[in-house]
Amino acid sequence: MTERTEALGRCGWTRGRVIAGAAVLTAALLMLHGVVPNAVGGLGSLLESFLPWLGLVIVVLLLLALLRRSAVALVALLLPLAAWTYLFGGLLLPAPEPAAADLVVVQHNVSDENTDPAGTARALTDAGPDLIALQELVPPALDVYERTLAPDYPYRTVQGTVGLWSKHPLTGARPLDIKPRAVTEEWNRGLRSSVRTPHGEIAVYVAHLPSVRVGASGLASSWRDESAGLLGDAVAAERLSRILLLGDLNGTVDDRALDPLTTHLNVAERGVALSFPAAFPVARIDQVMARSATVGHIRTLPATGSDHLPVVARVRMD
């Protein structure tokens, strides 16, 4: 080996230390995001809301490592790559084969400013779901949804601004109180109903948690967090073994604010399904979760007149 080759080899292991450090930090954020505090500006929840996007950081660091011809940086990048694959790689695997006992469900925040409710309703039925959960139902659009969905979905319940349409009989439908204490006006954004499917009875919850805001002071999410806790309490107290939760939860499944739900319910095993905002989706805040059932795959449907994309999931009745 010549002196020049030896020098180049030594440089490969000494240059790019900053890139290597950034790679280690990225790996730490992926695996230890739970220790990032929420006390200041909701920083932990903010990180967790966009946690999968750290994959783009890995790509950028890889390009920089190649440009720098840094061996140490390339080796260090194995850490965040392994962490990202462990956390999110399974979502990219092919969907499982459909089974006879599967339920197909659609979740969609239709937007109270939607100018084409009839077209939206038809787009949702095209997916052939057994259940359709909707949020932001307001007059006169509600009448349009009811007329358009009625021929294929004879069973329905609407409580406040959330609703559930079903091909199977509904029983015991009632509003669900998930209103934050600070909200004084009329506010009904949750419901619970039993659905008698051909494969057994299941409790279905439909919810629309309060919005969050990201500003100069960080993430403002106290109402969302409180409402998630109330919803989690209701789910934990449910007597039926099978539960299905459909809703605009204004949070991703990685966000610790949804721990009251994700500790009791499982989430999609396959599929990414970024649903918001519809023009350029960066996060899935429209969720399908289940207990004693498996959310095998989740995906988005084409855009409607809403600022959310609809999501459709296949749920296997265990």
Can I get a quick summary?
By secondary structure, the protein is α+β, with helices and mostly antiparallel strands. It is built from 10 helices and 13 strands. The protein has helices at 3-14, 17-31, 43-49, 54-68, 71-76, 78-88, 117-125, 141-149, 222-237, 259-262; strands at residues 102-109, 131-135, 155-159, 162-166, 170-175, 190-197, 200-208, 213-215, 218-220, 243-248, 286-291, 293-300, 311-317.
How does this structure look, described?
The protein is globular, with a radius of gyration of 23 Å. It has helices at about 5-15, 15-30, 45-50, 55-70, 70-75, 80-90, 115-125, 140-150, 220-235, 260, and strands at about 100-110, 130-135, 155-160, 160-165, 170-175, 190-195, 200-210, 215, 220, 245-250, 285-290, 295-300, 310-315. With about 325 residues, the protein is of the alpha+beta class. It is about 35% helix and about 25% strand. Helix 2 (about 15-30) runs parallel beside helix 6 (about 80-90) and helix 7 (about 115-125) packs parallel to helix 8. About 40% of the residues are buried. The model has no long low-confidence stretch (mean pLDDT about 95). The chain has a six-stranded mixed β-sheet, with no helix packed on it. A five-stranded mixed β-sheet has the order 5-6-7-10-11, with no helix packed on it.
